[in-house]
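Design a sequence for this backbone.
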């Protein structure tokens, strides 16, 4: 797929800071980057916890993946090096920066 589409996908993925991405979303990102299938996992909503997870429509459980985990999985599958961090938001940004740098370099 064209580098512009991949760079646009990085921009979109970066916007999912602290978000849980559905299986359809995972598949969509995987297709753009030419990786996959990427296995999702089941989660339980815990919206009453200060840093808990709230799922759309008040669902109690769902399948998908945290955006930071998806970004690091894509980097790993593409053999793009990135620094491991402790926070989800920071990890997402670091991985998106690595993806962006990789596809910008290839595009130049």
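Sequence:
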């Amino acid at each position: 797929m064209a580098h512009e589409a991949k760079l646009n996908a990085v921009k979109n993925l970066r916007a999912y800071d602290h978000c849980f991405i559905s299986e359809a979303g995972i598949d969509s990102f995987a297709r753009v980057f030419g990786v996959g299938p990427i296995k999702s996992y089941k989660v339980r909503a815990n919206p009453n916890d200060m840093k808990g997870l709230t799922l759309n429509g008040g669902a109690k459980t769902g399948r998908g993946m945290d955006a930071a985990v998806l970004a690091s999985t894509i980097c790993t599958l593409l053999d793009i090096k990135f620094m491991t961090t402790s926070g989800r938001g920071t990890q997402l940004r670091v991985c998106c920066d690595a993806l962006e740098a990789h596809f910008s370099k290839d595009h130049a």
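Residues 3-107 form one domain.
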